[in-house]
Design a protein that fits this description.
nine-stranded mixed sheet, 15 helices
């Protein structure tokens, strides 16, 4: 390990110990607020008319903070990041600073952008909701599955080893077809598939207010169907053992079982699954209007159009947030579905 890498690891340890950000391995950017899908479990698309997007000055303005914190990876999230007309310009700017770029995408426009993606983006994670019919139904976009599959094929034609993985939100409308989702991930040419339950409790994903009970019931797995979910998971663990063993399924069987625990907790049957997370210490989220959050789910702590990211993350407010955050009791953290635990010596 180089002296520079050792120093960065040391700063990551110091960040965890002191609650002052001295190293920030991951930054999540939302280049564009709109989305080209209309998913049933997400409200981002409902704000498409209220367009917000990051600009080139926003990205260049971040560079001093990213250099200071030794940022290794930028994750382009959204909305659909590819909708920003300057998306590839952003990637070039980051590439020049030796920062890796990961794209989270609906997959609808991968084919049209294949050459630039292979050149300027290090890896891609696409959303997958089921087989062709189910995926298109949940996305509310006819042909969404075929466009995603064609995009993956177009990238593979340029670079057969390019890493493209999938991510699936498991919920009421697709959990019974879970085995078919794994099969569809293989059919579409993905290198890996990951699973998480649906967030129904937070104000993230463009929710002006938290979902009320009737809206939540549209997505969460009903209490009387929990035994079916349990049977489906048992079937997965037995039938797809090889896919767990070779990491085609990203989670361990134990983590997959926590999806059952999460949904049963929503019905008050048990506690929410334990999670270990250090996202506010190792990453930050910058939204399309420049707002800065400690993670996707906690309130904003500043805006990069009003101050440097380094100052925002180490403001008194931000440091107090980290210092006093008890993830075992914080209502947002307890119900969180998407958590990050990055040790200081983890290589990105």
């Amino acid at each position: 390990m180089s002296t520079q890498s050792l120093y960065h690891t040391y700063k990551r340890y110091r960040t965890l110990q002191t609650d002052t950000i001295t190293a920030l391995p991951i930054v999540i950017l939302m280049p564009h607020s709109a989305c080209n899908c209309r998913c049933v479990m997400c409200d981002i698309w409902k704000g498409n008319k209220n367009l917000k997007q990051l600009t080139e000055p926003d990205i260049t303005g971040l560079l001093s903070s990213l250099k200071k914190f030794g940022t290794k990876q930028v994750v382009m999230s959204g909305g659909e990041a590819l909708l920003n007309p300057n998306f590839f310009r952003f990637c070039r700017i980051l590439q020049q600073e030796n920062i890796k770029v990961t794209l989270l995408s609906t997959g609808l426009t991968l084919k049209n952008n294949a050459e630039q993606l292979v050149t300027l983006v290090n890896d891609i994670i696409v959303s997958l909701d089921g087989n062709e019919v189910l995926h298109d139904t949940i996305r509310n976009i006819p042909g969404a599955y075929s466009k995603m599959k064609e995009g993956i094929a177009a990238i593979r034609a340029i670079d057969k080893d390019y890493k493209i993985t999938g991510r699936t939100v498991i919920h009421k409308l697709n959990y019974q077809w879970w085995p078919g989702i794994i099969d569809s991930a293989k059919e579409s040419g993905l290198d890996q598939i990951s699973f998480l339950p649906a967030d129904v409790s937070s104000e993230a994903f463009n929710r002006e207010v938290k979902w009320d009970a009737p809206r939540q019931q549209e997505i969460i797995i009903p209490k009387d169907e929990l035994p079916v979910l349990e049977t489906v998971i048992e079937h997965l663990i037995t039938t797809y053992k090889e896919d767990f063993d070779n990491d085609f399924i990203a989670e361990s069987p134990e983590k997959i079982q926590k999806i059952y625990t999460y949904y049963s907790a929503l019905h008050g049957i048990n506690s929410f699954p334990y999670k270990k997370c250090n996202a506010p210490w190792v990453s930050t989220v910058i939204e399309a209007d420049g707002s800065v959050r400690p993670c996707f789910f906690h309130p904003t702590i500043g805006n990069i159009r009003a101050g440097a990211l380094s100052d925002i993350l180490n403001s008194h407010e931000a440091k107090q947030f980290r210092k006093t955050l008890d993830m075992d009791t914080n209502s947002t953290c307890v119900k969180c579905v998407c958590y990050l635990n990055l040790s200081p010596n983890t290589s990105l």
